[in-house]
Amino acid sequence: MRIAAKTYTLVLVLLTGTACAASLQASALAATGGAAAPTGSTPATPIHTTGIATWFGPGFYGKQTACGQTLTPGVVGVANRTLACGTLVKVTYRGHSLTVPVLDRGPYGHGADWDLTAGAAQALGITETVRIGTRVVGKTANIPTLGLPPESTSAAVAGGAPAAEA
Questions:
Q1: Are residues 95 and 57 in the same domain?
Q2: Position 164 in a domain
Q3: Rounded to the nearest 5°, which phi and psi values hold at 25?
Q4: For every one of its 166 residues, what pLDDT tens digit does the chain have, with 9 covering 90 and above?
Q5: Are residues 72 and 140 in the same domain?
Q6: Which residue segment(s) compose the domain that 56 sits in?
Q7: Is the preceding peptide bond at 101 cis, omega within 30 degrees of 0?
Q8: What is the pTM of this model?
Q9: Whole-angstrom distance between the N-terminal and C-terminal Cα of the chain?
């Protein structure tokens, strides 16, 4: 019975010491304007990430993307294997940035994480496989005209014929 009492006392001392250490750590963080992470929490998803990007276009023009858009040279978007259609991604490359919607699945080759449409690659000045910065910034409705430039979208809604030049 004496051994059990000593074990109980030792466990109590260890628990009290751990609680005091945690309290001191929280006090120190609060004093400096910081906040302690809840015990057992998982780290937040990084806001900024990088990845390898390729681009696609000419061989796919006229075909439908996995998200339902018809690919043309003017479509500006990105393909990703895991993000939902309509997810808005800010892509940065060498001082250029562009916010584009996820329009397709892929890429499926070259060890790439992202596949830009030719329109997005051109807007960013990308001509080959490169490392880009990415950040998910929002979500938009996945509609058939997603990724088209504004002037193309209004023409598509008005009946599909391009607007006449005055």
A1: yes
A2: no
A3: -65, -45
A4: 454 444 333 333 333 343 444 443 333 333 333 333 334 433 344 445 899 999 998 999 999 999 999 999 999 999 999 999 999 999 999 999 999 999 999 998 778 999 999 999 999 999 999 999 999 999 999 999 999 988 765 555 444 444 333 3
A5: yes
A6: 49-157
A7: no
A8: 0.64
A9: 100
